[in-house]
Amino acid sequence: MGWATPESYFDQLERWLALEGEAERERLADRRRQQRAGNPERSGETLVNLRVTDHRTGLAGRLLMDFAKPASEPLPMNRLKVGAPVVVSGEDDPDLSGQPGVVSARRPNTIQVALDDWPEGRRFRIDLCPDESTRLRQLGAMSRARGLSGSATRLREVLLGFETPRFNDLPRVEMVTALNPPQEEAVRFALAARDLAIVHGPPGTGKTTTLAEIVLQAVRAGEKVLACAASNTAVDNLLEKLAGVMPSVLRVGHPARVFEALRGHTLDELVENDEASAIVREMHRDADRLLRAADKPSRSRDAHQRRRELRAEARELRRDARHLERHTIQQVIDAADVVCTTLTIDEELLGDRRFDLVVIDEACQATEPAVWQAVLRAERLVLAGDHCQLPPTVLSAEAAREGLGVSPMERLVGSAGSDVFRRLTVQYRMHERLMAFPSARFYAGELVADASVRGRRIADLPGIQPELAERPILEFWDTAGAGWDEQLEPDGSSKQNLKEAGWVVGQVRELLEGGVPADEIAVIAPYAAQVRLLRGRLQVPGLEIDTVDGFQGREKEVVVITFVRSNPTGEIGFLGDTRRTNVALTRARSLMRAIGDSATLGGNEFYAALLDDIQQHGEYHSVWELGDGA
Ligand SMILES: Nc1ncnc2c1ncn2[C@@H]1O[C@H](COP(=O)(O)OP(=O)(O)OP(=O)(O)O)[C@@H](O)[C@H]1O
């Protein structure tokens, strides 16, 4: 991708945003149509037939409502993640106008939404809603970036590839965290950057740890830092690391979107705990007293005049209280060394503040339009991520084709090459055998397993039965020729594979019987239909069954993968994006089992190489060996 001018770049971005908006609205309309067809939950963006099981008042007076199914059965698979904007409406409400809210917590059987007001109705539905406000903020930032002039354009030109990034000599740095050599090198490289540096962090290599050290060093040098990420979860992961190494970290954003344990860092709580807030509360109470006094019946001659005076006084007190509160908020922000936020920045709150350093974690999950709000506030920018894992989610197929799915980080790594990034190479997650293939394919063979994980075995967990302890680290079971075909999910468009699902159930049972705790097992399927099928069959508390997207950034001791695709034409759909498979293959710490059809997958060069590698290591089995089902 290349652009001749900033104008053509921003024109392109505006077009992409328009296409995304269209696609989102189209999807909502689709969901409504499905609702009439009687299957609104299939989309994963709607939950229906919910009742309120609990409610309480949360921070800043927001109403926190828990919703569950009638018999508290597990909720169907859905994309209503913590932080997602939703609308809660009564089932009988014909136009589903409802109350806007934000998902604030989720458990297998309940979902909690933070709302400003009680929605009408007795049975409820929750719909994910298009996030127009995010798009508007992005458009605003893009138009400001387009209009920059003079020296302010420097970072923009570097990001667009019109100018090359500049670096000072590598500084000597006394690290606070115990880092490995490539991590130290990345910290020094990022601190030497005069405009832009990139940290490439393959799975488990301590990218967030490294970023936290970069931020800490900047703060030690007296700088102010803005620490961002595309998702609330990624911001919280970064916040958690930062809060561990420095005191003055502030998290802005809807408190409902922040992990409970980190809420002490939120702006709402810090303001609430500030001395000035006690005065503000007192002022509000005084204003209430004045209003009550004004309401008291009185027969005196000047009662009317007196009432007016009291009300005016109350109004003034309220105005002063609000003023003091705004002032307190700004003071709390000013006092923080580091401000953490998602890339959707509250412009009103941050005003015209600029930061010496802006870091973006999980930068490969951010689209081009998504980064400009943060970039505009930056003197220097550090991006951290892994372009060999999942790219940003894009709804519009047209925008995706034109390149919206390529993050700026991926684009820059491609165009500027190693001049602009440093790669972390020591990983702290996987047994070295599990690391080998992904390392060779995606990371130029550079990954090294740290001594603490290199020989990691399932037997290291307490209570593992001897039979399981001796099983190989990796097994691939091939269904080729066995007729274990994929199916289209009944009345859906996602794929499932009943026979593979049956095999997975057997594997999970064996692992549980072998002593692996359920919460140390992940079942990963690329297709939502297979996930739904397996969740129905395997209702084990603690066991996680999800799509690849649900596991990005996470790890488990044991991973079972079902590839699902098995058809005579070698069709592999989005398994063709091997970055998705890279994520699946790099989640397990010590044991991995996978099942798939080599005849279907093997037409693709990547899977052919994977299968070859597995065969060479004697980890290959055919389901024909199982005798029965084949
Ligand atoms: N230098 C180090 N020494 C020891 N442990 C480390 C070091 N760096 C990172 N780790 C450990 O490695 C794990 C992964 O670190 P971190 O969460 O920073 O990684 P990440 O690369 O951001 O993760 P992911 O790839 O999953 O996004 C953590 O448990 C962390 O404590």
From TrEMBL:
User: SMART domains from the xrefs?
Assistant: AAA
- The question of whether Hydrolase is a record keyword is answered with yes
Transmembrane domains' residue ranges = none
What name has this protein been given in UniProt? DNA helicase
Q: Where is the AAA+ ATPase domain?
A: 193-361
Coiled-coil intervals, chain numbering: 300-327
**One cellular component term from this protein's GO annotations in UniProt:** chromosome
The record's Pfam families line, in alphabetical order, gives: AAA_11, AAA_12, SMUBP-2_HCS1_1B
Q: Which domain of life is it from?
A: Bacteria
What species was this sequence derived from? Botrimarina hoheduenensis
Compartment(s) where it occurs, according to its Swiss-Prot or TrEMBL record: Cytoplasm
- Output the Gene3D superfamilies linked to this UniProt entry: 2.40.30.270, P-loop containing nucleotide triphosphate hydrolases
Q: Which UniProt keywords apply?
A: ATP-binding, Coiled coil, Cytoplasm, Helicase, Hydrolase, Nucleotide-binding
| This enzyme's EC code(s) | 3.6.4.12
- Top-level class of the enzyme under EC nomenclature: hydrolase
Q: What is its main location?
A: cytoplasm
What family does the Swiss-Prot or TrEMBL record give for this protein? Belongs to the DNA2/NAM7 helicase family.
Extract the GO molecular function terms from the UniProt entry: 5'-3' DNA helicase activity; ATP binding; hydrolase activity; RNA binding
Q: Which InterPro entries does this chain map to?
A: AAA+_ATPase, Coronavir_polyprotein_1ab, DNA2/NAM7-like_C, DNA2/NAM7_AAA_11, P-loop_NTPase, SF1_C_Upf1, SMUBP-2_HCS1_1B
